[in-house]
Amino acid sequence: MNPFVLLALSVVSETAGDVCMKLSNGFERKLPVVGVIVFYTLAFVLLARVFIFVPIGTAYAIWTGAAIALSALVGHLVWREGFNVKKVVGIALIIGGVALLRLGV
């Protein structure tokens, strides 16, 4: 499978783990805690596969940047968490940094 498809699936899994962590209410609710374990495990297994084909710096930068952006978007859409100009600029800088890393490969 294409390593960037695996990377995208890993990002989605990591974000699902973040959502489950939020839903766990500080690890007090058991079912979301199971989701945290399952989704983070899947995210790291997929990321480990990506490292076989993509340089670690590039893969990890894409993974973290995309996961930050997706988690911020989910937080805004689901929990109405703030989304202001500073957050948008920060996410844009992360994406720009990832793009620069990718171009440097």
Total of helices: 4
How is the main sheet built?
none
Tell me how many strands there are.
0
Structural class: mainly alpha
Oligomer: single chain
Secondary-structure element series: HHHH
> What is the radius of gyration?
15 Å
Percent in strands: under 5%
What is the mean predicted local confidence, pLDDT? Answer: 93
What is the fold's blueprint, element by element?
Elements: H1 3-23, H2 30-53, H3 56-79, H4 85-103
Explained architecture:
α1 (3-23) crosses α3. It contains four helices and no strands. It is mainly alpha-helical. The chain has helices at residues 3-23, 30-53, 56-79, 85-103.
Features:
0% strand, single chain, mainly alpha, 4 helices, 105 residues
Quick overview of this protein structure:
This protein has helices at 3-23, 30-53, 56-79, 85-103.
